[in-house]
Recover the amino acids of this structure.
């Protein structure tokens, strides 16, 4: 017993010494931790306090603006709805499995018609739908932007030809693209058994058209800023165009390409919400619009949950791309 107590005391003492011991710059670990964590925590606490106090004084047609406590409670309700829907779906598939077993036992050799579950999409289902849509649009945009950016960076004539179009289309709002995309998709995508829903294609293509420009511009800038000696080496070695691009151009411009992709993903996530609202594609944008149209006593709280979800998911996407950007920068510091 005494040995255990002495060991615990020794570990605790060493831990305290490690925390309080100054680092190379003369600061203790406690001070460093507080300096990095305390300001964000203080800012969040002040924001929540002001929100709680100010919300009670704002009265709308849907009721009083909800505070952080009510929003957190509604987030819990949305999670419970998700769990309840999952249980209903599990019970449905269980009953269908039992019916199938009885049917095949009574009618051997015949085919059992499987019925698909048609429950309402939950809040979490719509989050995943939005993520899927934004990644499809972002991926398509990257496939278009990176090759075009490489062409613009390597060839000044192509850059001069495409630059006016880039400058014209880059600032166009998704609200302007959406009617055009809707008409084009409706006219061209005609199928009795479509692989994708039209609303999904409309949202994804709108995301592509609005988010590809930062990647295109940064790729062109990265390629244009490659050391000329490296390009001259490729000429001396008589490398093929594909080899030059894969061995010299892409590795040298990778940092700026990922910078553009990071910006594009942020734009894609913002554009998607507006696109889902108007295209009525299942997702967070449609969830917000449906709640606004619903006008129930809980609509404001649910919309506020969606607002914070959109912001938090956007933050996670940005951090993910920032990590990839750092990996592509080979240890160089990126902001």
């Amino acid at each position: 017993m005494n040995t255990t107590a002495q060991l615990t005391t020794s570990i605790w003492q060493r831990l305290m010494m490690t925390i309080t011991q100054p680092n190379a710059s003369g600061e203790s670990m406690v001070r460093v931790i507080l300096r990095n964590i305390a300001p964000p925590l203080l800012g969040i606490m002040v924001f929540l306090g002001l929100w709680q106090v100010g919300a009670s004084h704002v009265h709308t047609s849907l009721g009083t603006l909800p505070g952080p406590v009510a929003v957190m409670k509604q987030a819990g309700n949305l999670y419970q709805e998700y769990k309840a829907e999952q249980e209903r779906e599990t019970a449905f598939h269980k009953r269908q499995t039992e019916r199938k077993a009885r049917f095949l036992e009574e009618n051997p050799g015949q085919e059992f018609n499987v019925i698909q579950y048609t429950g309402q999409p939950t809040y979490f289902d719509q989050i995943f739908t939005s993520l899927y849509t934004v990644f499809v649009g972002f991926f398509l945009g990257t496939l278009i932007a990176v090759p075009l950016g490489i062409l613009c960076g390597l060839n000044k004539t192509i850059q001069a030809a495409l630059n006016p179009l880039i400058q014209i289309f880059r600032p166009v709002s998704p609200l302007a693209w959406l009617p055009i995309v809707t008409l084009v998709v409706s006219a061209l995508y005609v199928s009795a058994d479509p692989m994708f829903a039209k609303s999904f294609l409309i949202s994804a293509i709108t995301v592509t058209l609005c988010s590809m420009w930062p990647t295109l511009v940064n790729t062109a800038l990265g390629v244009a800023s490659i050391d000329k000696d490296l390009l001259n080496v490729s000429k001396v070695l008589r490398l093929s165009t594909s080899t030059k691009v894969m061995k010299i151009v892409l590795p040298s411009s990778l940092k700026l390409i990922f910078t553009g992709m990071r910006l594009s993903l942020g734009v894609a996530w913002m554009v998607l919400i507006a696109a889902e609202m108007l295209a009525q594609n299942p997702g967070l944008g449609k969830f917000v619009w449906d709640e606004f149209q619903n006008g129930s006593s809980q609509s404001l709280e649910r919309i506020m949950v969606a607002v914070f979800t959109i912001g938090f998911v956007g933050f996670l996407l940005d951090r993910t791309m920032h990590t990839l950007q750092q990996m592509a920068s080979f240890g160089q510091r990126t902001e």
